[in-house]
Amino acid sequence: MVTIGKAKVPWKEELTIARVLAALDDDYEYAVVRINGKLISKPHFENTRVADNSVIIPIPMIAGG
Question: Could you report the per-residue pLDDT of 11-43, keeping only the tens digit for each?
Fold first, then answer.
């Protein structure tokens, strides 16, 4: 099982950050996530595999002016 924010996603072999984010029921496009304490940026979501029991924290980007 993988924890992402407050949700739980079943772990599968070959699971990537991109697939975990796609399982969320929101339309937000995250640019960065923290997985087990390590920051991963969007260009690496497709290739970064997620281990079983990982904790993923999506980090929303905030813009201001």
Answer: 999 999 999 998 887 878 899 999 999 999 999
Number of structural domains in the chain: 1
CA distances from 45 to 16, 30, 64, 65 (A): 7, 10, 25, 28
Query: pTM of the prediction?
Result: 0.84
Let me know the angle formed at the C-alpha of 29 by 26 and 31, rounded to the nearest 5 degrees: 140
**3-state SS of the chain?**
CEEECCEEECCCCCCEHHHHHHHCCCCCCCCEEEECCEEEEHHHCCCCECCCCCEEEEECCCCCC
- Residue 65 forms part of a structural domain: no
Query: What are residue 55's phi and psi, to 5 degrees?
Result: -115, 120
Domain holding 51, by residue range, is 2-59
